[in-house]
């Protein structure tokens, strides 16, 4: 999805070329087909190849993916997500990262979320 978002549209070959450690071409095509089936992408035929386009904005796709992750792996518990994130990336978090997270938590408290 990131590659399609960055380019605005992409073929399977474009996606394959944009991946740092790509799977097979057929695996990329299968993934793109799944994303079309789920409604995240649409496509049109251009000559002999399909060109894929996003059907949702990047922010909406991120929100949807996060909701799925939250439900699937963390039993809808945001605190478990944050705990896992801190556990995995604590060494990489900067003081600015932590301050930003604290500010977001404080803002959520003020807004009564």
Order of helices and strands: HHHEEHHH
Q: What value does the average pLDDT take?
A: 92
Oligomer: single chain
**Mind telling me the CATH superfamily name of the largest domain?**
Winged helix-like DNA-binding domain superfamily/Winged helix DNA-binding domain
CATH top level label of the largest domain: Mainly Alpha
Relative helix content: 55-70%
The coarse overall form would be elongated
User: What percentage of amino acids are in beta strands?
Assistant: 5-15%
Class by alpha and beta content? mainly alpha
Describe the structure.
It is elongated, with a radius of gyration of 18 Å. The longest helix has 17 residues, at 58-74. The protein has 113 residues and is mainly α. It folds into two domains: 2-54, Arc Repressor Mutant, subunit A (Orthogonal Bundle), CATH 1.10.10.10; 58-110, no CATH class. α2 (12-18) packs across α3. A hairpin with a 2-residue loop joins β1 and β2 (49-54). It has a two-stranded antiparallel ribbon with strand order 1-2. It has six helices and two strands. The protein starts with a helix and ends with a helix.
């Amino acid at each position: 999805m990131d590659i399609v978002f960055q380019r605005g549209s992409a073929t399977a070959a474009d996606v394959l070329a944009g991946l740092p450690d790509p799977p097979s071409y057929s695996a990329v095509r299968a993934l793109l087909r799944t994303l079309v089936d789920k409604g995240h992408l649409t496509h049109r035929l251009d000559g002999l190849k399909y060109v894929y386009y996003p059907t949702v904005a990047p922010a909406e796709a991120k929100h949807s993916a996060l909701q799925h992750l939250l439900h699937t792996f963390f039993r809808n518990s945001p605190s478990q997500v944050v705990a896992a994130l801190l556990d995995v990336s604590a060494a990489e978090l900067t003081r600015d990262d932590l301050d930003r997270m604290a500010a977001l938590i404080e803002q959520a408290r003020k807004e009564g979320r």
